[in-house]
Amino acid sequence: MKVIVNKFKKMGYKHISLYAIIALCIVASVFFVHHNYSFYERPIAKVIKTNLENTTELNDMYQNEDRLFTQSIIAEIQNGEEKGKLIHLNNEYSSSGAYDQEYHVGNDLFVSIDTKTEENSELTGTIKDVKRDKFVLIVAWIFILSLLIVGKKQGLFSIISMAVNAVLLSYALDVYLNTSGISLLLISSICIILFTVISLLLSNGFNEKTYAAIVVTLLGTFMSLFITYLVMYFTSEKGLRYEEMQFLTRPYKMIFMAGLFIGSIGAVMDVAITISSSIFGLYEKNNQITVKALKTSGLEIGKDIMGTMTNILFFAYVSGSIPMLILYLKNASPLMFTLSMNLSLELTRALAGGIGIVLTIPIGIYTSIFFINRKRAKQ
Q1: pLDDT digits (tens, 9 = 90+) for 212-232
Q2: Cβ pair 241, 341 in contact under 8 A
Q3: How does DSSP classify residue 118?
Q4: Which residues pair with 351 in a beta bridge?
């Protein structure tokens, strides 16, 4: 207790005020999501009682086993004209839980009320979705607090840059969907420039190291996209399966390229700032260090991070396809067909990002040395 008291005494007024504001925001946001039913247009019902009515064993032709459960639910309407009334719902869910789930007392559900229900009779309806904002808020605050505790001021700027980038991306997609004749690839290119500048300037400040990282990120990203486009052009895109985009009414190739473009910037930016920070750090410790020594150190650092970053991209893209891979294989689909159908686009994204990472290392070394030589010339 004394240690905590002493820490509070050492804190300045600004720190105490900041912590108080954060605590107030947490309490206010938690209170809001627990009482925000009236802000939703769709009816929301809180589960107050559940009962398991029936269980059925299922087996298909491939000997896949599953269980189907029928659950009766009594819930209380939380908003709208029927607020306070009870509604009776039925829920069918399987033990695999692929497209359904079991509901428990306390869950908030978006429901559709049966309009054919007679007056003075029990309300009935169907379950449409689950209200998850409470859980999303908890995860969001854990993420925010982790950034603030570890990164402090830089963590705060990282949160701000992420929020700004999310707004920019949302606006860019809105412009694309509501404007005919504009290229999504052009919009993505503008977004890439804005994402890079905003993220790096907010996270690392206005200095030569940041300027070098911005140039490196943009060069590495655009070059990787250009090389990927050339490969796709000369191979006529053979082996790429666009079936997952079959419901789009826009040019699927351009949408894939735009997604590939935006998806690779994170890894490229990470490598760029790592190389730039390392080389500038070596220079700041020893202003007389030779260019050859900077190149050698930069290459060693690049080799160390190259393998891990490419693996991160591979696992990040492929992990999203694991459920579909299991589904295909469990239904006796051939292995090569399964991999081709589900991994062709993901592996292409991973390879394109990997190209960007590899190119960023030498670009980052020489660009950082260029800025260091400019800095030396001014001294």
Answers
A1: 999 999 999 999 888 888 888
A2: yes
A3: P
A4: none
